Structure formats: structure tokens, C-alpha cells
Amino acid sequence: MKKFSIASVALCALLAVSSCGTDNALTFIPVTYNETSALEEGAQDSIKISMEVEYPENTGDKRTQNISAAISATLFGSEYKDLAPQEAMKAWSDSLKAEYVSGNLELLAMMRENGEENLRPGMDWTCDKTGFAVGQFGNFLGYRTTTYMSVQHELSCIEKAADLRVKTLGKTA
């Protein structure tokens, strides 16, 4: 309990210091994306994707572009870093949907061939992804992501913490 209290005090102090008006202060806004897609026409099985991610408010400067790119790379992979936040979310979602459809339609086709379609397990997937800034101090930005993935009733959780720094948060010319 003592470790938790010390960590909480340290985080509060970090947030208090970072919120004092400095040239490097950033404003974050939530960007959401929600989609449900059926496995095939008329199927009850589906994939549900929900994302709520904080990105820096777009001020049009290189700094916020660099930070947004680093956040997208952390959340979705480096291939999405050059896309605008909403575009990165959609592109990643489309990739996950393609994986879902290809794997499950193949399984469903095999089950149909063997007359076992009624025995099939639930083929639902659910993905909930969040990302948020946890504090800023000088040229450092703490960022945390969480992905909960449920594939056919098996739950997995991936958490990442990233420290983004220096050039992305440095003063702009």
C-alpha cells in the first residue's frame, strides 16, 4: 500500500508540474472509433471493434504531427504512423477485420463441408483499445495503451507504456 501511495503522489506531482503553463504543454483530445461487422451476410457471428485514443490537439505544427505519429506507431504498428489518427484507426480496424473474416470463413467452410455447421463454436471477436497520456514533464510524455481482445471467448490483454521524448516534444522553431 505504501508503494502505491508513493507512486500516486509522484504521478500527481508530475501532472501538477506538467499542467503549469509551459511552452511545451499539450492539449489532448479523445478520438473514438467503433465498428461492428458480420462474418458474412446474415451471420450472427461478428467482430466488434471499439477504440478511444487520446491524440494531441492538431495545431498544424511538426511537434504535434510527430507526437501523433509516435502514438499511432505505439498503438497500431509503424506502418500506420504516417496516417492521420482517424485514418490509422480505420486502416488498423480493416486489417483486423480481414484477419477475422479470412480465418473464420475458412473454418466455417470446412465445417459446412463436413456437415458440422450446427456444432460450430461462437466465432465472435471483440477488440477494445485505449490510449491516453499519463503525464508530461519537460521533454517527456508518458503514454499508456491497453488492448483487450476476446477471440471465441478467450480473453487476452496487452498493455504498453511508452515514454515519448525529445524531438517530438521539443520547442518548435
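The above is record 1. Record 2 follows with the same two-line structure.
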Amino acid sequence: MRRLCRPGPDYGLCRRTVTLYHRMPGEGFLVKRILFKGAFLDRYLTRRAKDAGSGWENSFLLILPQSEGRPRWASPEEYHRMTAEQQAGRFTLLPGDKLAEGEGPELLTPADWAALDPLKGGCTVKEVAERRWNGRVCHIEAGGPQQLGRSGLPRPHKAVHR
């Protein structure tokens, strides 16, 4: 008897390099920097209703596959209990953490952290979710809207109907 099963997720579009920045809790300023090769990052415009009308917001979706040769996910609670040696090759993300496209700079001061904004290629994580396949974490999704000033957004193309 032949068993038919659906194939797992296809990560063929996960070819980008991103730098993840996780701000560690506690006193002082300490940011863990992880270079993640083989991610999917999509930036797009969304229309949002606001109190003073509607407007456009820049949003992003980041997919971090969990496969060989890539940093491994650890839940924030688990990650913060690990020693520095155990954290090597692992990462975690929380809302408020940041990312940069490509190989981003070291963030050594609070001013460096504040300077990494959407207008300069950075993104601030608003939501993080584990996605599972056959009982195992297959990838991590992060994303959310980015707050930009009015002058920071390109105007979307309007469809012309005739």
C-alpha cells in the first residue's frame, strides 16, 4: 500500500539575507545581532483607516525557515534562560525588535537603535508567530505596519478603468 502525503512548505523564494536585532532585557543596553541567510522579506503598501481619515502604511512580512544551515528559533523565555554559548546559532524575536536588509551594522548605543528606522532600510517587528508542520516549527513569521511620515511613502499607482 502506498502512502500519499502532502509535501512540506516550499522555501524556494527564501534567498535574502537579513540582520535580526533582539534587545536583551535587563539593565544596560545589550543587543544580540544575528545574520540570517535564506529569508523571505516582502515590503508592501497597505491602506489603513485612521481616526482622521485613511492613509497608506508601509508594511512587511518576514519568513525565517527552520532548516539545516540556518539559525534555529528559540522562544523568548527559553532564549533568555540560555547562556551566551547556548545562544550561539539561535535567535528569538519579540515585538519591538528590529531587522535590516542585508548585513546590518552593529548597534552599540541607544542612538544606533533609534537610527535604524524604516526610512533607512530598517523594520520594527510588530507581530511574531511560529508556524508548524507535522508538529515541528517549520518557519517563523514576523511583520507589521511601519510608521512613516507622509513624505516617506511613495504614492501608489491608481488603476485606470475605462
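The chain has three helices and nine strands.
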